[in-house]
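Hello support,

Our group uses your service weekly, and this is the first time we've seen a run hang past the timeout. The protein is Tol-Pal system protein TolQ. I'm not sure whether the cause is the sequence or the server load. Input pasted verbatim:
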Amino acid sequence: MQVTADLSLVSLIANASLLVQLVMALLLIISLMSWWYIFRKLFTIRRAREQADEFEKQFWSGVDMTTLYQVAVKTRHSAGSLERIFEAGFREFTKHKTRPGMNVEAAMEGTRRAMRATYQREMDRLEAHMAFLATVGSVSPYVGLFGTVWGIMNAFRGLSNVVSATLAHVAPGIAEALIATAMGLFAAIPAVVAYNRYARDIDKLAIRYESFMEEFSNILQRQAHA
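Update from on-call engineer: The timeout came from a worker crash unrelated to the input. Re-ran successfully.
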């Protein structure tokens, strides 16, 4: 008697064991969430880069810092990271400057702390959901492999009730099990690529912010001594 099997993708998923189907569903959800964060992070980093370009252009154009600070305060909710760092530093410096007998070292130390605190908050915002992408990239293949191992185990267990085992008996079970591995890789590969790309972009922004803080601190220090 010839054994025929429907090896279409939909049929294989529908006929898979419950545990394998749960693994596939989990990987599908993880993949969709991963793509959502990938696109969201793409626009976030691009916007941060554009805002940094725009603010640096204004800052180095020679505009009065007090005017720039007032604009930054008014547009605080829509301002970029670099603008918020500038606002925090200039606000702290102004507080010290208005006090009688200002201590330059204390003023600069407070200014740097204020900028560093804002810098850390901005970096936390840029790095949000990066851990999720890293986890998806490292764990998804193993989740898919677990579904594959379980499916292959079930396929070979089914041979215990067959007198004459042929490839047609185990092919559907092995095929449906391998789908779990494929889904695990489908979820992991984009997450790994996106994580590596975004981590590099965020590092570049971090270096850019730190350079600005150093340059801005030097400018304020010269003004304080003057």
